[in-house]
């Protein structure tokens, strides 16, 4: 496998399951902020990103205790399933029918404060210690932990793109802004339920009812949740790209739950650097660059970040800002 094939293969895996890059990336300059040790997490977020409402997905993670485990292991190997993840951009129009493949979320891992995350080993050199500490329930989960650590230590973003891992509330609040080169950002997450244990992917026929473009900027950052005992996110830029919030209504009588959901979608506007062996290209007998835009949905816990000055007509994250009155502090 050549280097470009390896890069594109990694990107495919991230779209399905998420994977990381460096543990703590460089952060943009900004005013000093008190540690969450003495602040409620939402207050800390608002101090760092005063113009960026906290996405609901991140808020949900803050309600989890630090003892909550994230034991679901993703599948990385089925090329046919990977091909189903992607679709042509013209599907994203009101009235069209789609059978989306959306990565499942079967648990909510705890999002740690940095002081706690920094106290835990996070390195392939400490893999034995990490496995002993968290005691994964299966060999598959142990392999996922190793894979996440390796990917976080050796990021392979596409040419011209940037990547990094966020392992704490602080790094997740700052890393996407650092990747985009501005603290003036907006963040979004979808609105989907937790999936039953054992779910491989969210499927079922849906009608596209609303499509809202998140930004006019051709550059966005996406943060994908990884399989790890606590919340770890792989954040990377995508350029050129178009980002959307899509409202999907389950087909009547399909038995698909919920009846309505909102999902984030990213459309990649340049496939010329993709591998000829990309599952979507092979499935449609296409070559890299033959198609202008290829899209995919993101998981429940994934977030999209865009420059605020280029924001499109989409509503802000979940339409309302999480209130400061939420006072669960890290102590």
UniProtKB/TrEMBL annotation:
<feature type="domain" description="BURP">
    <location>
        <begin position="86"/>
        <end position="308"/>
    </location>
</feature>
<dbReference type="InterPro" id="IPR044816">
    <property type="entry name" value="BURP"/>
</dbReference>
<dbReference type="InterPro" id="IPR004873">
    <property type="entry name" value="BURP_dom"/>
</dbReference>
<feature type="signal peptide">
    <location>
        <begin position="1"/>
        <end position="21"/>
    </location>
</feature>
<dbReference type="Pfam" id="PF03181">
    <property type="entry name" value="BURP"/>
</dbReference>
<protein>
    <recommendedName>
        <fullName>BURP domain-containing protein</fullName>
    </recommendedName>
</protein>
<keyword id="KW-0732">Signal</keyword>
């Amino acid at each position: 496998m050549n280097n470009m094939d390896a890069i594109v293969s990694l990107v495919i895996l991230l779209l399905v399951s998420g994977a990381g890059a460096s543990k703590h990336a460089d952060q943009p300059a900004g005013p000093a902020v008190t540690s969450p040790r003495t602040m409620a997490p939402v207050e800390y977020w608002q101090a760092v990103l005063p113009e960026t409402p906290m996405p609901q997905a991140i808020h949900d993670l803050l309600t989890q205790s630090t003892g909550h485990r994230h034991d679901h292991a993703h599948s990385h190997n089925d090329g046919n399933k990977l091909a189903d993840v992607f679709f042509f951009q013209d599907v994203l129009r009101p009235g069209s029918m789609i059978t989306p493949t959306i990565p499942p979320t079967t648990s909510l891992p705890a999002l740690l404060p940095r002081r706690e995350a920094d106290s835990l080993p996070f390195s392939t050199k400490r893999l034995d210690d990490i496995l002993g500490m968290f005691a994964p329930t299966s060999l598959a989960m142990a392999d996922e932990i190793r894979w996440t650590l390796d990917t976080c230590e050796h990021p392979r973003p596409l040419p011209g793109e940037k990547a990094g891992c966020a392992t704490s509330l602080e790094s997740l609040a700052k890393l996407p802004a650092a990747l985009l080169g501005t603290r003036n950002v907006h963040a979004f997450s979808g609105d989907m339920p937790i999936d039953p244990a054992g779910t491989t992917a969210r499927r079922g026929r849906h009608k596209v009812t609303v499509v809202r473009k998140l930004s006019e900027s051709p550059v966005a950052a996406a943060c994908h949740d990884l399989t790890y005992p606590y919340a770890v996110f792989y954040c990377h830029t995508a350029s050129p790209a178009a980002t959307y919030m899509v409202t999907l209504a389950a087909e009547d009588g399909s038995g698909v739950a919920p009846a309505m959901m909102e999902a984030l979608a990213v459309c990649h506007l340049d496939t010329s650097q993709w591998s000829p062996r990309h599952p979507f290209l092979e499935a449609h007998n296409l070559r890299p660059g033959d198609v202008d835009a290829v899209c995919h949905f993101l998981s429940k816990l994934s977030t999209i970040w865009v420059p605020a000055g280029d924001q499109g007509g989409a509503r802000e994250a979940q339409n309302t800002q999480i209130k400061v009155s939420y006072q669960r502090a890290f102590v």
